[in-house]
Design brief:
Length: about 180
Amino acid sequence: MGRENANLNIGIEAKLFDRFSATIEWYQRKTTDMLMSFPMASSLGFDGYNKNVGSMRNTGVDVTLGVDIFKNTPFTWSLTLIGSTIKNKVLQLADKPEIISGSYIIREGETLNSFYTATAAGVDPATGEQLYWAWDTDENGSKGQKYITNDMAKATACKEIQGSRIPDLYGSIGNSF
């Protein structure tokens, strides 16, 4: 949870021939004081505690399209299509620039709870072992050239953001008879 502020909504509604309808809404919301589980060393007896850790911005589009297929007859049929998109971005975390929890990461400038895993490079056809992309780092922490390895420990140390948990588009189809 958190406080929502700096909200912006823009919407358009239309009806055509008393049969077709459409609603399109664009929104932008900023949430501050997000309450999240803040990880800590499990040797302390707990794996984390709830804390207000940062802010995030959500933007998206909601579209609703409707049509009365059969109208003013003994049999009526209306069809509704609903689609939504959402993009979010973590703007700030309170104590550190990222929070890693298993195969997810919350990092400033990225989508909330992005997938954070080793990058697969296929399967070794001779042995059937999983292969991963990895790299070595120099004394300054800079990444070196990427190479393929079957060493899971090396791959685990070379995690990357693989994408967002949020679908690009979601929606529904509704019929009314």
